[in-house]
Fold this sequence. Notes:
By secondary structure, this protein is of the alpha+beta class. The chain has a single domain (2-139), classed as Vaccinia Virus protein VP39 (Rossmann fold). The protein contains five helices and three strands; from the N terminus they run H-E-H-H-E-H-H-E. The longest helix has 20 residues, at 105-124.
Amino acid sequence: xxxxxxxxxxxxxxxxxxxxxxxxxxxxxxxxxxxxxxxxxxxxxxxxxxxxxxxxxxxxxxxxxxxxxxxxxxxxxxxxxxxxxxxxxxxxxxxxxxxxxxxxxxxxxxxxxxxxxxxxxxxxxxxxxxxxxxxxxxxxx
Length: 141
């Protein structure tokens, strides 16, 4: 994707990208997998969505693909979660819906209870529930 973006940009053209930020600042994206792990429920062995969250990796990747003027910024985005049920649509993601379908009733209750507890803990502390993103702006010279 970066190689193609560089190819089609005119000289002095700007490209902007957003990707997932750091996992420790992305409660919204880590709550389900961390809860599954806490309950010893295995997740499929997939590459982490946070695999590009380090600036050094991004700089190397962008430089390798022809970009040499690079600005990187971490941005926290809160999501409208005011009660645990506001989060439940995340269970519809294929990876999680398959896991939930296979869970025994007791395990599923324990899982949902743990999700509720963690969300309520954040809400009671008046903390936003959201995720961090990385904004990348780069120019072709």
